[in-house]
């Protein structure tokens, strides 16, 4: 078993020892009623129904409350203190030149055979892949604050990991610090698949962290969650990363598919999961009456 895989497995075993039985039972009960097949089918339908052409459209919400915004005859929810730019990430970064960010998060569309096969089967469920050289050439270097934390989601492909550490980060002017892991579990708190040897599929993904200037980032950490049914949807990292950057950090997310408060999100689909059809109105009066 590779050293990294053994390390993730060990961290998960320690995690299970730290949480109480009550927490585990609550977790199981919460997800017990979920029909996962039904949810996956809904997620697939939503993914295909929320494909929009928003090239060169930008906007934002400077207020402290979320707003509903009409864009090309469709309504979207825009979180408080957020901004978005739709289009090629390289072009978006050029338009942001002069802005400075304390946290930069990226989820690049790494080139891999699985996505290539997925695209052949159903083009609506895939995205344009990028070669490592293209990712390295993204003009993000001028957008880093003097002290900036950089987090990049990376596949377990050795070539992608090496390229990120030895080509992409150096081209961006980023110093590699450490690697965190996102372990995907079932509703029974079991790894989504077994820990494997070699290059077989693993139940975890990597978050490779680097820095510009002086940023204190903890060594190996483990994030454990049930993965979203939405295709290629990662858990938001902002709440975790913000604790390592003082003050009110300005955040930039590259290749975004949803918006977050206090964040500038760029890519072809930053509004994808903001479409009004994915949300339902809450009747606050009814909610209050149910609590009484």
Largest sheet: 9 strands, mixed
Number of strands: 11
Shape: globular
Topology pattern, helix = H, strand = E = HHHEEEEHEHHEHEEEHEEH
Question: Considering DSSP H and I runs of 4 or more, what fraction of the residues is helical?
Answer: 25-40%
Which stretches are poorly predicted, pLDDT < 50 over at least 5 residues? 115-126, 286-292
* Rg over C-alpha atoms, rounded to the nearest angstrom: 20 Å
Strand residues, percent? 15-25%
Assembly state: single chain
So how many helices? 9
Structural class: alpha/beta
Q: Give the end-to-end Cα distance, rounded to a whole number of Å.
A: 55 Å
Mean pLDDT score, rounded? 85
Strand order of the largest sheet: 1-4-11-10-5-6-8-7-9
Provide tags for this entry.
alpha/beta; 11 strands; nine-stranded mixed beta sheet; 292 residues; disordered C terminus; two-stranded antiparallel ribbon; single chain
Can you put this structure into words, describing what you see?
The protein is α/β, with parallel strands linked by helices. Helices cover 31% and strands 23% of the residues. Strands 1-4-11-10-5-6-8-7-9 form a 9-stranded mixed β-sheet. A hairpin with a 2-residue loop joins β2 (67-71) and β3. The model is unreliable at 115-126 and 286-292 (pLDDT under 50).
């Amino acid at each position: 078993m590779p050293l990294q895989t053994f390390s993730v497995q060990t961290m998960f075993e320690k995690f299970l020892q730290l949480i109480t039985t009550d927490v585990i039972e609550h977790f199981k009960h919460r997800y017990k009623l979920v029909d996962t097949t039904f949810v996956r089918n809904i997620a697939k339908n939503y993914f295909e129904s929320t494909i929009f052409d928003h090239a060169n459209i930008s906007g934002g919400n400077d207020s402290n409350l979320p707003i509903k915004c009409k864009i090309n005859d469709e309504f979207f929810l825009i979180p408080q203190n957020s901004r978005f730019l739709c289009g090629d990430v390289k072009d978006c970064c050029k338009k942001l030149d002069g802005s400075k960010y304390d946290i930069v998060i990226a989820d690049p569309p790494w080139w891999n055979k699985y996505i290539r096969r997925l695209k052949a089967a159903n083009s609506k469920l895939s995205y344009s892949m990028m070669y490592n050289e293209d990712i390295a050439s993204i003009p993000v270097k001028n957008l880093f604050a003097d002290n900036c934390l950089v987090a990049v989601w990376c596949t377990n492909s050795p070539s992608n990991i090496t390229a990120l550490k030895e080509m992409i980060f150096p081209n961006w002017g980023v110093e590699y610090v450490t690697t965190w892991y996102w372990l995907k579990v079932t509703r029974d708190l079991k790894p989504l698949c077994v820990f494997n040897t070699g290059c077989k599929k693993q139940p975890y993904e990597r978050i490779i962290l680097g820095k510009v200037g002086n940023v204190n980032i903890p060594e190996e950490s483990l994030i454990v969650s049930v993965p979203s049914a939405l295709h290629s949807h990662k858990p938001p990292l902002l709440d975790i990363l913000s604790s390592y950057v003082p003050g009110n950090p300005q955040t930039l997310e590259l290749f975004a598919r949803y918006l977050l408060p206090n964040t500038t999100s760029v890519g072809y689909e930053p509004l994808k999961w903001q479409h009004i059809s994915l949300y339902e109105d809450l009747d606050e009066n009814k909610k209050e009456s149910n609590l009484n």
